[in-house]
Design brief:
By secondary structure, this protein is of the alpha+beta class. The chain has one domain: Alpha-Beta Complex (Nucleoside Triphosphate Pyrophosphohydrolase). The protein contains four helices and 13 strands. Strands 1, 2, 3, 4, 5, 6, 7 and 8 form an eight-stranded mixed sheet that branches. It has a three-stranded antiparallel sheet with strand order 9-12-13. Strands 10-11 form a two-stranded antiparallel ribbon.
Length: about 220
């Protein structure tokens, strides 16, 4: 590699960096949806349709990035919101991009106002959404979530219900250290839970609410 080739590569590196490993995982765009009702600002949530993945759980509007439809993750958040809630793109005003969530997926979050006079003006898609509801932002400013833990474990192999060994990675053949031969990296992850009359608001959605409110809405 000569100097010109090396300098060309360095120029590319100095462009805005992406997230390492993004292409290997699914990417989503989520709208942290806000509506103004009777002078008060609320988060808008949806109860997911019972028959879909994570059915009957509470979430913000949003969905998977589709490179055939979306140029950016903001496009994803707006498109999915319009499809789920039956509104026009012009009704969604993006205010800011929030922090990215990463675990087994990448989720890009956008704070945005949905302009409508009342919730009945929505034409929700019953294939994806059972119903929508709102909770005042002030409630989350004043109310701390309950905090629990789940255990995250890395496994190179496991035994199924029939006693068969399932090997995900041949750690012995690869001569990796013994600590990787079974399970490793047991760690606890905090899980936030807000109790609502619509059921528990928990997991990723609760974490987005908690992080957003504590970082931006609390003085």
């Amino acid at each position: 590699m000569n100097q010109l080739q090396f300098e060309t590569i360095i120029k590319r590196i100095n462009e805005k960096p992406d997230i390492l490993g993004r292409k290997n995982l699914k990417n989503f765009g989520v709208l942290v949806a806000v509506v103004q009702l009777e002078g008060d600002y609320h988060f808008l949530f949806q109860k997911r349709a019972k028959h879909i993945r994570q059915g009957s759980e509470i979430s913000f509007p949003g969905g998977a990035f589709d490179e055939s439809l979306d140029k950016t993750f903001e496009d994803t958040a707006i498109r999915e919101t319009c499809e789920e809630l039956g509104i026009k793109k012009e009704q969604v005003e993006i205010l800011a991009q929030l922090d990215t969530f990463h675990s087994h997926v990448y989720i890009e979050n956008f704070l945005g106002v949905i302009h409508l006079e009342h919730l009945e003006a929505l034409d929700i898609n019953p294939d994806e959404v059972e119903y929508v509801f709102t909770i005042s932002i002030d409630y989350f400013v004043e109310t701390a979530p309950e905090i629990y833990n789940i255990k995250i474990r890395s496994m190179s192999s496991e035994v199924d219900e029939d006693g068969n060994l399932i090997e995900y990675m041949p750690v012995k053949d690869l001569e990796l250290p013994k600590r990787y031969h079974h399970t490793w990296n047991d760690s606890l992850r905090e899980v936030y839970v807000y109790k609502t009359k619509h059921g528990p608001l928990w997991g990723l959605t609760a974490q987005i609410v908690y992080e957003t409110v504590n970082k931006y809405f609390k003085e």
